[in-house]
Specification:
Elements lengths: L3 E4 L5 H19 L8 H12 L4 E8 L2 E10 L5 E4 L3 E2 L5 H18 L4 E6 L4 H9 L3 E10 L12 E5 L3 H15 L4 H10 L3 E5 L2 E6 L8 E3 L2 H9 L9 E4 L3 H9 L3 E11 L9 E2 L5
């Protein structure tokens, strides 16, 4: 197959979005999960948002004038992590070949930009994508559950803990320290964006920050010094955006607690990595990115 790779432009967004919707719907319907892209409008809007993000790099594969699939690579400065997704290939195309070409191209681009730590979140219902990512060098690190629901009781007992909004540079500095302890790097850019949106919160005990959240949803992340603090973060969140937030499946205490609060597991996913990786040392909630 003769495939050409080129950057995505505005005129490609509708076609790429429709391909993304069909690809996700094909996989989800085959396995009985709700689709990650619930409508064509959602899929097209997502690609348009990514295309307009200066920290996102999108390319597509085409044969002659037919678009076969697309992929994005994202940066989150000053974090040293590059993130891949979404990768979508037309279900009628030669998926494995097209997917491999797109993956190899963005991984090479990431390396050319001096990013050696690359992440993605994979849908485990899609075995072909798991095979593709594994062959591309990725390793499964964290099985995840997307949890959907709302806290039935906002008066969760947080004992001596105090909840505040993240507002100052000093707050950010203290949150950065927790992130470095947990992951080995900061996610300051995302935290500051959450601050600007008014959804970043911190948990304090005796004047020291014990945990923080950059929003409860697919695009937020949280870090805590203990599971009790993580529970307080979830209970004290300023709202959970649809379709929910990710929880590491290995954190049985948090998964069970959420189920007891009436949350349900919407669908499973996998956090996969390429390059250097440090196992998290503190309880955390990842985003759709990493």
């Amino acid at each position: 197959m003769s495939v050409r790779i080129r950057p995505i432009v505005e005129a490609d967004v509708e076609v790429c979005g429709k391909i993304g919707f069909r690809a996700h719907m094909t996989v989800s319907s085959a396995h009985g999960y709700p689709s990650e892209q619930p409508s064509e409008e959602y899929a097209i809007g997502l690609l348009r948002m990514l295309l307009n993000n200066p920290n996102s790099y999108g390319i597509l594969a085409e044969k002659d004038t037919q678009i076969l699939g697309s992929i994005f690579l994202h940066k989150f400065p000053p974090s040293p992590i590059a993130v891949i997704g979404p990768l979508t290939v037309d279900p009628d195309a030669e998926g494995g070949r097209v997917g491999s070409i797109l993956m190899n191209t963005v991984v090479s681009y990431a390396h050319s930009q001096n990013y050696d730590k690359i992440r993605l979140v994979q849908s485990p219902s899609h075995i072909r994508s798991f095979v593709l990512y594994t062959k591309s060098g990725f390793t499964l690190r964290e099985p995840l559950f997307l949890m959907q629901g709302n806290m039935p009781n906002k008066n969760f007992d947080i004992k001596a803990l105090e909840l505040h909004k993240v507002k100052t540079d000093k707050d950010v500095l203290e949150c950065n320290k927790l992130c470095i302890q947990a992951h080995g790097f900061t996610r300051e850019g995302e935290l500051r964006q959450a601050m600007s949106q008014g959804v970043a919160i911190e948990i304090e005990k005796e004047g020291e920050i014990q945990g923080y959240s950059a929003g409860m949803g697919l695009f937020g992340h949280s870090i805590a010094s203990s599971n009790e603090v993580l529970k307080a973060i979830i209970a004290g969140s300023l709202g959970i955006t649809e379709p929910g937030f990710f929880v590491p499946a290995k954190n049985r205490e948090i998964v069970m607690w959420l189920l007891e609060q009436g949350f349900r597991i919407q669908w499973p996913a996998n956090l996969m990595t390429l390059g250097p990786y440090m196992d998290p040392t503190l309880p955390f909630l990842p985003s759709l990115a990493y």
